[in-house]
Design a protein that fits this description.
The protein has about 140 residues and is mostly beta strands. About 10% of the residues lie in helices and about 45% in strands. It has helices at about 90-100, 130-135, and strands at about 5-20, 20-30, 50-55, 75-90, 115-130. The protein has a 5-stranded mixed β-barrel with strand order 1-2-3-5-4. It starts with a strand and ends with a helix.
Length: about 140
Amino acid sequence: MLNAVIIEGYVTNKVWHWGGDLCFRLASYRDPHLPQKPPPSVSTDHDQSADYMTVRVVGGAPGGLPVAIRPGQRVRVHGFLGSRPFRRTLTEVAQMTQGGPVGWKPGFDPTKSFIEDEVVEVIAEQILTLSRAQEEAGKGP
């Protein structure tokens, strides 16, 4: 089966380490000939025209090479799609969204209720940093 990804975009301000892996969020803008995203139904703080995805660099660097990832940097990532289970308690979700649990019914324990989800991410095998000249050449006519 084929599982290959080549994606280009800008590193957002979200860069972190998870276990021994380097992770970052990538904002990628669709080419003009592709269907564009519909306008958002609610206002948010981030650019709604970009598609956002998580890139995970297993071991911190593809092929053992040092990787310096900086917010705002334009990169091209070669890799494959991977997924992993992701589980959070309702308490964790409430803390993320509201700063803490609010309005729980008596007898309800949000630490024992879970949201099961799947995280899909790009597992990087190669990361290329695009120079200004490469960015300009990629813009087209």
